[in-house]
Every structure is written in C-alpha cells, then in structure tokens.
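Quick one, tokens below. Sequence please?
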C-alpha cells in the first residue's frame, strides 16, 4: 500500500501530465463552496469537493493539489478492494488479484484524475466490504453498522448511487439473511443509525429543496434524454474493449489489457456453477447497474471495475485450483506451477503501466484532451504579467481561479494604455504598434503548439535634434 501511494503520487506529473476540462471545472466548483453551500444547492459530490477545497486552500492551486483528493481516495479504495477480496478469496489470490486491478490503466486514471468520478467506485468498495462484515455475523460491532449507515448516506451525494441505496433498502426488506441482520440490532443502535443517517443527508435534502435541478442531476443527469440511452451505453463502454482504435476521450483504449479480459472470462466460466452465491449475486447486480445506469450517464460505466476485479480474482483462483488438483500431494509441483502465474502477473503489471504512461503522451486523440496550462503559467509567467484570454474561452473561470493564487492578472480585453508590464496572449497573436513580440511559449499538449505569445511595450526612440527641428 505504501508503494501504491508512492506510485500514485509520482504518476500525475508524468501521465497524463495535465488537466482535463472536467478537472478544471471540478477545481472551480470546489473553490465556489461556501458556508451556505446547502442553500446554494452545491451538494452534488459534496464530500469530494470539500476535500479538494481543503487541498487547494492548504497547498495552493497546482497540479498536485487538484489531484491530491483523488490520490488519497484512490489509496483508500485500493485498501478496501484488498479487504473485500480477502473476504471472498484466499489471501494470495486476493493480493495478486488486487494488484492486477489497482495497476490497470482504468484504476490508475481514476486515482490520478482530479474529479469526483472515483467516488462511485470508492463508495461501492466500502459498502460491499462493510456489508460483507455485517451480514452473517451474529456479533457485529456497532461501529461497523454505524459506519455502513453513514457511508450509505454519504454515497447519496454521488450521482446515480441513489439506485444502489434503493437496491440495498429493498434487499434488506426482502432477503431473509439481511432481515435477520437487522433484527440483531439493539433498539439504541437502531436509533443511533437512524439519527446518523438523517443528520448526514440533511444538507443534501436542504440543497434539493432550494435547488430542484439537483434531484435531476442525482438521479439522471443534466440535459438527459431517454432517446440517447443506447448511444450512451455504447459510448461509455467503447474504450473498455477497443484494442485497435483510440477514441476522442480522456480514457485510453483499452482500459483493461487482453490478459485481464482473459482472466475475467475464465472467472465467468468458473462462476457459472456458483451463480447464486452472495459473491456472484453481487457481481451480477453491479454489472447490470453499471450497464443500465451508464445509459443515463456514461461516466458511471467505470463502476464496472468492481465486478471485473472480483471476476479477475475468480479466474486466477480457478487456474491455481486447477493446477493444484492435478498434483494434490506434490508441493514441488505446486511451486513450479506458480512460476508461470508470477511471470504472467509481472507482464500484465508492466504492460499496464507502460500503456498508461506512454499512451497519454503518444495517443493524439487522448492527449489533446489534457492541458498543461497550469504548469506553463506558473513556470513561465513573471510576476505582474497580464494574461489576455478570449471571453469565449471555456476555461476562463479556471484561469481566474489560477489568477488568485499567482502574481499575474487575467483580462479578456487589452487595455488601451500599456504600462511597463509584459502581456501574455493565450493561443493567438495581436497587432499593436506599441507592443513587440518577444517570446513564444509552446505546449506539447496542443495540436498548434504555440500556446503563449509574450509581448513587451515598445519604448519609442528619442528624436534627434534635426527631427525635433522639423
């Protein structure tokens, strides 16, 4: 886990090496949260935005402060995935299975993206682990039950996880094992759980009352159209299984390597005879959830990472058990049989890492969706520089936020009189007699690499005595 945290802390500076529009907007949304966030209706993904606001407030606005919340949540998600797999598999299978997923392109992107998209995977992993600890346990510690209730309430702030909470509520009423677990709660524990749930969702309810559009965004999505469901599903899952075509997206294709897919197929085949076990029931329901809800919002398709994690571990378990069954009493054969598995795991890990690092640099249709403006502005703009940005630029709000944390000024119109300050123009040239082009700063993230044009004020030469006489 320490090595994983170090890797996640190191990777954002290499890949993708910039910020997507969604990450810039997330930083703007986080900064806009005030003490009256509930009345203003700023409650969607509130836990993440509060964490991101704290990160920006403490460390300033930078590439890392924007991504730090996702890095922290990513490490916690990986931790809960390992714990969850340990509930369903032997420790060796759980560790190797978790390594395969946590070092996949899909998870590395999630853990390095400064957007709340990772929260849906985090809440699912946490709820599944807590639920597996509670169900079937006759003496569940009260802290686990209260943690489950609070986590369930906090998950409602994430769009579309309302359906998961509703499914858990229905299952709790209909499934006999779940009903038995509920009956094990003492009266005071039930009161504490209900009170904690109400207090946790209170800001969400207030936000929905003051801003009714919040309900639509939590259940459906902004500008949702039922006629686009099939197209959304196709768009959502296209990068997952494309081995020959790169899409114009922030996701690399494929998000999971061919070896991972093979393990998933083996896991599916091994699970067919155990379809109605709790593990396979959860996997089936989460797969259905990811497919159907991605029709409402393509971003939710990433939650299929949880079923893929479980099925990969199941495939790995099936391979190991099959080999051991051939030589049940021979430990040397067991050891020799694990060597090819170790080699395959190492190949999967290194191919996934190389695909992630180099893919975001050398796949034009993906790389162009990330901007390194924040790094260029902070490294190249001198104190007091005026940054000229077009009024129609969709990232203008982010540049204004960046202005507050740096010593340059953002303007949308060039002033009539220019003082002795440098003028940096974003993405275009200007023609004024009192300004001279002194420097061009390029970016590897844009198709037209000339990103900043630096101008300085032209100082008129002194007139000669003859010119003065004339």
């Amino acid at each position: 886990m320490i090595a994983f945290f170090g890797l996640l802390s190191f990777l954002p500076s290499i890949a993708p090496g910039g910020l997507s529009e969604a990450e810039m907007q997330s930083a703007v949304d986080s900064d806009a949260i005030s003490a009256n966030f509930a009345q203003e209706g700023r409650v969607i993904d509130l836990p993440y935005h509060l964490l991101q606001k704290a990160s920006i407030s403490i460390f300033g606005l930078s590439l890392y402060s924007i991504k730090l919340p996702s890095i922290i949540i990513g490490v916690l998600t990986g931790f809960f995935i390992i714990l969850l797999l340990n509930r369903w598999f032997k420790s060796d299978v759980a560790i190797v299975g978790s390594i395969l997923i946590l070092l996949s392109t899909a998870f590395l992107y999630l853990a390095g993206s400064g957007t709340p998209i990772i929260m849906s995977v985090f809440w699912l992993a946490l709820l599944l682990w807590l639920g597996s600890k509670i169900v079937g346990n006759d003496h569940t510690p009260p802290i686990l039950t209260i943690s489950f209730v609070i986590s369930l309430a906090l998950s409602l702030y994430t769009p579309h996880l309302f359906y998961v909470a509703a499914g858990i509520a229905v299952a709790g009423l209909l499934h006999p094992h779940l009903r038995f677990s509920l009956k094990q709660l003492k009266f005071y524990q039930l009161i504490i759980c209900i009170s904690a749930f109400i207090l946790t969702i209170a800001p969400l309810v207030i936000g929905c009352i003051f801003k009714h559009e919040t309900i639509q965004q939590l259940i459906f999505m902004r500008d949702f159209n039922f006629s686009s469901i099939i197209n959304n599903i196709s768009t959502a899952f296209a990068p997952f299984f494309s081995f020959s075509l790169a899409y114009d997206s922030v996701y690399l294709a494929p998000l999971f390597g061919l070896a991972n897919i093979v393990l998933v197929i083996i896991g599916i085949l091994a699970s067919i005879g155990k379809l109605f076990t709790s593990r396979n029931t959860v996997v089936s329901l989460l797969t259905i959830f990811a497919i159907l809800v991605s029709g409402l919002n393509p971003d939710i398709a990433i939650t299929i990472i949880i079923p893929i994690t479980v099925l990969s571990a199941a495939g790995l378990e099936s391979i190991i058990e099959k080999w051991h069954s051939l030589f049940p009493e021979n430990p040397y054969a067991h050891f020799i049989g694990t060597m090819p598995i170790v080699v395959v795991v190492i190949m999967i890990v290194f191919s996934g890492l190389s695909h992630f690092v180099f893919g975001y640099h050398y796949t034009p249709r993906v790389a162009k969706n990330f901007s390194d403006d924040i790094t260029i502005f902070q490294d190249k703009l001198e104190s007091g520089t005026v940054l000229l940005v077009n009024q129609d630029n969709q990232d203008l709000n982010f540049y204004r936020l960046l202005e507050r944390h740096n010593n340059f000024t953002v303007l949308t119109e060039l002033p009539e009189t220019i003082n002795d300050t440098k003028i940096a123009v974003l993405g275009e040239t200007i023609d004024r007699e009192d300004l001279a082009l002194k420097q061009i700063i390029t970016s590897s993230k844009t198709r037209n690499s000339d990103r900043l044009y630096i101008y300085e004020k032209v100082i008129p030469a002194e007139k000669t005595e003859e010119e003065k006489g004339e």
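The radius of gyration is 27 Å. The mean pLDDT is 84.
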